[in-house]
Amino acid sequence: MELTANKRDNILDASLILFAERGFDATTVPMIAEKAEVGAGTIYRYFDSKDALVNVLFQEYVKRFAAYMIKDYPDSSANPRSQFQHIFYGMIRFAKEHTNALYFIDVNCNARFLDDKSREVFQEMMAFLYSFVDHGKRQNIIRSLPSEALIAVVFGAFTRIYGLIRKGVIQETRELLADIEQSCWDAVRIHSD
Amino acid sequence: MELTANKRDNILDASLILFAERGFDATTVPMIAEKAEVGAGTIYRYFDSKDALVNVLFQEYVKRFAAYMIKDYPDSSANPRSQFQHIFYGMIRFAKEHTNALYFIDVNCNARFLDDKSREVFQEMMAFLYSFVDHGKRQNIIRSLPSEALIAVVFGAFTRIYGLIRKGVIQETRELLADIEQSCWDAVRIHSD
DNA sequence: CGATTCGGAATGAACGTTCATTCCGGCTAT
DNA sequence: ATAGCCGGAATGAACGTTCATTCCGAATCG
By the CB < 8 Å criterion, does B126 face chain A? Predict the structure, then answer.
């Protein structure tokens, strides 16, 4: 039982690293098998196909990502500034622990191989972000731009930064992250000056 | 001669669309041939390999992108605010005319299939942006974050926005673009309030 | 308690398919 | 007429997937 669960996890872990490093199409099943230290056929004991595998992986991590942001989220009586901070630090915690997963989600969230379930799980996560943005816009604290655009700005900036951290170009320090958070907030908030 | 140049261009145009839509690995040479309305073998009359083709395409468009930003760039006596605006509107002009190319460059600027020349051309473009950021930091107008991070924030936000425009999720209006420009500037500048 | 049987998990060689690339017969333009 | 460009069938490598076989621990029997 232990070993069984372990192999499945080994396959998922190996896939995530390879998909993040090389992309889905450039990763072959034998590559995954080698990294997971299982036979190529074993992968098909746990997953119907390479496509099914990537979808399981995607859904798994999108759900976790959403959980990081939603956990202890200040309710709608809280001010947008602290809600933003909560979401952003949730993203940071996820990114710290699952840097490859963040990159994998980011690159593949519109990929052609995603099935309906994967798209649905992703949209659920986005719906949460829309509700936050709309709340802030109603209070005249967040810029009145399309919600998609505001989310794109923050998400784009954030994933890029973690791309640089992933590659070792910049160091992930508390100060840097605090500054980036402020920078992203300044991008979406309405300014008085 | 006319026809010859035309075929080469057809191949490049078809490749750009397909690489942007499906990605490099999921685009086959016969697909390119069909879209370009040439035989598969003809592609190899103009390019050594699929890899060589994608590198030519990448370098071509990175150079054009850089040209859009650098043309009429205000010299270092100008203030960073107007320099930023110039760069940003250069990016917008490029993105408007070559939306697929922007997406293609963005997604593939770290791809494993890029050769030394492609990386060099890309780095040249980045060097220009570094010099702008450093200039602004020295004048205490731009946040003292790593230049890579500041560029990533703006670039990440910008390419995401054009991703949405490309997909038709949001409309590309003069007002939206002006707001996004302001939003990105607010992300990198030092605030007085 | 050791020997034997058993069943499902694991394997990797082999399969059909599809890829990037080559090659050559025919077509075009002069 | 013919030189050279062109197209698409041919090719071999590599892909995702399958399946006959091996392996291994638990259950059963003597």
Answer: no
User: What are residue B40's DSSP bridge partners?
Assistant: none
Give the closest-approach CA distance of A50 to chain B in angstroms: 14
Give the Cα separation of B68 and B98 in Å (integer). 11
Pure H helices in B71-168: 80-97, 99-108, 116-138, 147-167
In one-letter notation, the amino acid at residue A75 is D
Three-point CA angle A18, A24, A30, nearest 5°: 60
Cβ–Cβ under 8 Å, residues B19 and B57: yes
Residues of B in Cβ contact (< 8 Å) with A191: 186, 191, 193
**Length A47 CA → C7 C1' (Å):** 21
Please indicate if any CB of chain B lies within 8 Å of the CB of A145: yes
For B30-71, how does the pLDDT look when each residue is reduced to its tens digit (9 = 90+)? 999 999 999 999 999 999 999 999 999 999 999 999 999 999
Nearest to A148 among B25, B158, B169 (CB): B169
The structure tokens listed for B22 are 């499906």
For testing contact with chain A, the best of B144, B153, B167, B175 (most A CBs within 10 A): B153
Q: CB-based contact (8 Å) between B74 and chain A?
A: no
Q: Using CB atoms within 10 A of its CB, is residue B191 exposed (0-12), middle (13-18) or buried (19+)?
A: exposed
- Please indicate, yes or no, whether the overall pTM of this predicted structure exceeds 0.85: yes
Spatial contact of A149 and B164, defined as CB atoms under 8 Å apart: yes
User: Rounded to 5 degrees, what angle do the CA atoms A71, A73, A75 make?
Assistant: 145
**Could you list the mean pLDDT of each consecutive 10-residue stretch along chain B, which spans 193 residues?**
69 96 95 94 94 97 97 90 96 96 95 96 96 95 96 94 94 96 96 78
- Provide the 3-class DSSP secondary structure of residue B189: strand
